[in-house]
């Protein structure tokens, strides 16, 4: 069972504010999944390469950059929750300092 | 009965000018108005855009143009970006997001003159097996409104089953096209990974995500794949394969002499619903009756598909969903500082299942656990992939169930994520291996709920896979059975 400290640590890494009820529920539910994942520890994977992609791809080299139409500034800002018409507006990164 | 038309039947009518695209589109819009309140298959219906597209299609038809989709009304799972039309991914965090560009698959269908009726409900960010994890409420199964349509493409499967569109786009990461297709008695093709561009698909697990279609028959599945496939400069994992030859599939005689069908013992497990096993075994016997040679095979790592998937997919999801930060698009919960804003926005914007998977993925990728969980899961994924590679040295296709049970009741599994995850036990391995697989209707249980047969082919083996599935469908009529929908009216 994941401890409350572990759950809070993961939530902080994941940038998720969780309610106390969610923390308790996720601790239990994540533990169930991790218990099942323990089956993976019993498999001999000596010398087996990991599969990150099923495709036989290597580094894909793109042709030299060719200019093409992209988003206009207006389009790029259109869905933003807060802008000044030119930039995204975000809260201060360091509290009152900014 | 225009709404019952398949894509190819609709095209035949349009080509002969027996009806117009506007008439066809109106028939679907009326049916959506009547049935969607009960089914909740559509999140967004776009009548004005649809009729405008239909008028344009009629003009192209009048000018003598002919494409496989020209004037045909279809609908799109709400995880695929549609230019100018709200795309929510079933999430509160994107409830008001309007993309400024089309997904490549959508753009290709638009160019061919398909008509878009609207956007279809799904589990939030395609994470789920029931469409209950949607911020816009659950979709209901047209065969029994108290039951789920499967997921995550449950809006797509319900819409095709209830004739609310000719065909629907879906996505399949671990079974999200095949399982809802099975639970709603429609045909669902999960293409080989890379065959259709993922550009413009709101990403869930990038090494697994595929874009495909749910259709009324196998021929439509071939038509939709042909329309969407091909390498795309905007997706470096997209691949040019030999294009699907739709005419060759249409011309297939229902004879399977010389076709070797593998039957994997591991897919007939204790605990599966007896009616499902019976229907799938009957379907396999039917393939033998058509001349196929049945070959008992083993896919020994099948049981590890579930734990491998529930490490890899959440890990990739936790990285992909980091982009939802309340800055560039979507919901923002105002807070005093940036980190609090991120945490509150994501805490309130994401639903339970999405948060659960982000937590799980973050844990699996975190310091001290990365090798133990994530890298190990990727190594076992290799073993699963090799199972299929070795099997396909001996057989042409593999036949198996899609889902261990028929449609379950709404609310039955929402409190127990592991029970929900078990719904995908037979679809996850093909996703992890990146091969192609199709779900076709193969029977009903005692309560009249649909059952699906899964046929699995090797990577880029869709031509053979679709031919075998088409042969099955030409000699059976399960896919033509329709739900009564009296309850929904």
Descriptive tags:
heterodimer, A: 98 residues, mainly alpha, Histone, subunit A, 34% helix, flat, B: 489 residues, alpha/beta, Amidase signature (AS) enzymes, eleven-stranded mixed sheet, 11 strands, globular
Largest sheet of chain B: 11 strands, mixed
Q: Please give the CATH class of the domain at 4-42 in chain A.
A: Mainly Alpha
Number of E strands of chain A: 0
Beta-strand percentage range of chain B: 5-15%
What is the count of DSSP helices of chain B, taking H or I runs of 4+ residues? 16
**How far do the termini of chain B sit from each other?**
16 Å
Task: Write up this protein.
The complex is a heterodimer of chains A (98) and B (489). Chain A has 98 residues and is mainly α. Chain A has a domain at 4-42: Histone, subunit A. Chain A has helices at residues 4-13, 20-37, 73-77. The longest helix of chain A has 18 residues, at 20-37. The model of chain A has no long low-confidence stretch (mean pLDDT 90). Chain B has 16 helices and eleven strands. Chain B has 489 residues and is an alpha/beta fold. Chain B has a domain at 2-260 and 461-488: Alpha-Beta Complex (Amidase signature (AS) enzymes), CATH 3.90.1300. In chain B, strand 10 and strand 11 (450-457) form a beta hairpin. The interface between A and B is large, with 52 and 72 residues.
Short note summarizing the structure:
The complex is a heterodimer of chains A (98) and B (489). By secondary structure, chain A is mostly helical.
List strands and helices in order, with pairings:
The complex is a heterodimer of chains A (98) and B (489).
Chain A: H1 4-13, H2 20-37, H3 73-77
Chain B: H1 7-15, H2 21-39, E1 42-45, H3 47-62, E2 73-77, H4 104-111, E3 115-120, H5 154-161, E4 167-172, H6 178-184, E5 187-190, E6 210-215, H7 218-228, H8 246-250, E7 260-264, H9 274-289, E8 293-297, H10 305-320, H11 338-349, H12 352-365, H13 370-391, E9 397-401, H14 417-421, H15 428-433, E10 436-444, E11 450-457, H16 462-474
Parallel strand pairs in B: 2-3, 2-4, 7-8, 7-9
Antiparallel strand pairs in B: 1-3, 4-6, 5-6, 5-10, 9-11, 10-11
């Amino acid at each position: 069972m994941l401890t409350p400290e572990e759950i809070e640590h993961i939530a902080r890494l994941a940038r998720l504010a969780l309610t106390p009820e969610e923390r308790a529920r996720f601790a239990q539910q994540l533990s169930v999944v991790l218990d099942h994942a323990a089956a993976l520890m019993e498999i001999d994977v000596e010398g087996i390469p990991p599969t990150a992609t099923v495709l036989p791809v290597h580094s894909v080299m793109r042709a030299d950059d060719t200019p093409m139409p992209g988003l206009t500034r207006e389009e790029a800002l259109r869905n933003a929750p807060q802008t000044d018409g030119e930039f995204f507006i975000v809260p201060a990164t360091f509290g009152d300092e900014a | 009965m225009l709404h019952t038309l398949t894509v190819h039947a609709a095209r035949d009518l349009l080509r002969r000018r027996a009806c117009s695209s506007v008439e066809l589109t109106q028939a679907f819009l009326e049916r959506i108005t009547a049935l969607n309140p009960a089914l909740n298959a559509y999140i967004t219906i776009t009548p004005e855009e649809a009729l405008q597209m239909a008028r344009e299609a009629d003009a192209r038809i009048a000018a003598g143009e002919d494409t496989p989709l020209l004037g045909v009304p279809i609908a799109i799972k709400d995880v695929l970006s549609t230019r100018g039309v709200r795309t929510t991914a079933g999430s509160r965090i994107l409830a008001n997001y309007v993309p400024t560009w089309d997904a490549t698959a959508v753009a290709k269908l638009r160019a061919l003159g398909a008509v878009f009726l609207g956007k279809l409900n799904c589990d939030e960010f395609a994470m789920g097996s029931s469409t209950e994890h949607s911020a816009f409420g659950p979709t209901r199964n047209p065969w029994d409104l108290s039951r789920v349509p499967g997921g995550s493409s449950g809006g797509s499967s319900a819409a095709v089953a209830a004739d609310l569109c000719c065909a629907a786009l879906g996505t399949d990461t671990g079974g999200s096209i095949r399982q809802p297709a099975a639970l709603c008695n429609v045909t669902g093709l999960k293409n080989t990974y890379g065959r259709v561009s993922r550009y413009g698909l709101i990403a869930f697990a990038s090494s697994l995500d595929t874009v495909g279609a749910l259709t009324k028959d196998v021929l439509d599945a071939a038509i939709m794949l042909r329309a969407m496939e091909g390498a795309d400069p905007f997706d470096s994992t997209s691949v040019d394969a030999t294009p699907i030859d739709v005419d060759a599939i249409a011309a297939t005689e229902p004879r399977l002499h010389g076709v070797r069908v593998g039957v994997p013992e591991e897919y007939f497990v204790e605990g599966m619903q007896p009616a499902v096993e019976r229907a799938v075994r009957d379907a396999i016997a039917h393939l033998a009756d058509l001349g196929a040679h049945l070959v008992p095979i083993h896919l020994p790592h099948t049981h590890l598909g579930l734990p491998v998937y529930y490490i890899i997919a959440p890990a990739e999801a936790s990285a992909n969903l980091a982009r939802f930060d309340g800055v560039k698009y979507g919901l923002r919960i105002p807070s005093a500082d940036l980190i609090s804003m991120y945490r509150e926005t994501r805490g309130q914007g994401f639903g339970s299942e999405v948060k659960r998977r982000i937590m799980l993925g973050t844990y699996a990728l975190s310091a001290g656990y990365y090798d133990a969980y994530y890298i190990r899961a990727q190594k076992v994924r290799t073993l699963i992939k090799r199972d299929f590679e070795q099997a396909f040295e001996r057989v042409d296709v593999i036949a198996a169930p899609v889902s261990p049970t028929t449609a379950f009741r709404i609310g039955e599994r929402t409190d127990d994520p592991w029970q929900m995850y078990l719904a995908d036990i037979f679809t996850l391995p093909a996703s992890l291996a990146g091969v192609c697989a199709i779900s076709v209707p193969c029977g009903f249980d005692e309560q009249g709920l649909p059952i699906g047969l899964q046929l699995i082919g090797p990577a880029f083996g869709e031509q053979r896979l679709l031919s075998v599935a088409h042969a099955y469908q030409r000699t059976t009529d399960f896919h033509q059975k329709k739900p009564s929908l009296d309850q929904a009216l």
